[in-house]
């Protein structure tokens, strides 16, 4: 895996701002020809720096006017229970993100409702 350089970071930043930016626009913005931009994007995808592309929706228009944040505490803190919790929460389609956290809670989950 290659170390990220400034151009890679600029590409990642531009894609975070607008995942639909095309290679020509990105090429113009970064002052680099299209072929190296395309090759770098493919490398960033293949090496796992880019894991996917996402659309950000207007929740109210989509009928999801409420965002719920939930703190979760597990009664048992061993690897088996933590793994089982992580597997189960992946199957709940309403959960958009879930983070392992320190402190009095074990996980922080976000859900669109």
In short:
The protein has 113 residues and is of the alpha+beta class.
Which ranges are low-confidence, i.e. pLDDT below 50, for 5 or more consecutive residues? none
How much is the radius of gyration in Å?
Answer: 19 Å
Q: Give the DSSP E fraction (strand runs of 2 or more residues).
A: 15-25%
In one word, what is the shape? Answer: extended
Number of strands: 3
Strand order of the largest sheet: 1-3-2
Helix content: 25-40%
Strand and helix map with partners:
Elements: H1 6-17, H2 23-30, H3 34-46, E1 67-72, H4 79-90, E2 95-100, E3 107-112
Helix pairs in contact: 2-3
Describe this entry's structure for a reader.
This protein is α+β, with helices and mostly antiparallel strands and 113 residues long. The chain is 40% helix and 16% strand. The chain is built from four helices and three strands. Strands 1-3-2 form a three-stranded antiparallel β-sheet, with no helix packed on it. A hairpin with a 6-residue loop joins strand 2 (95-100) and strand 3. Helix 2 (23-30) crosses helix 3 (34-46).
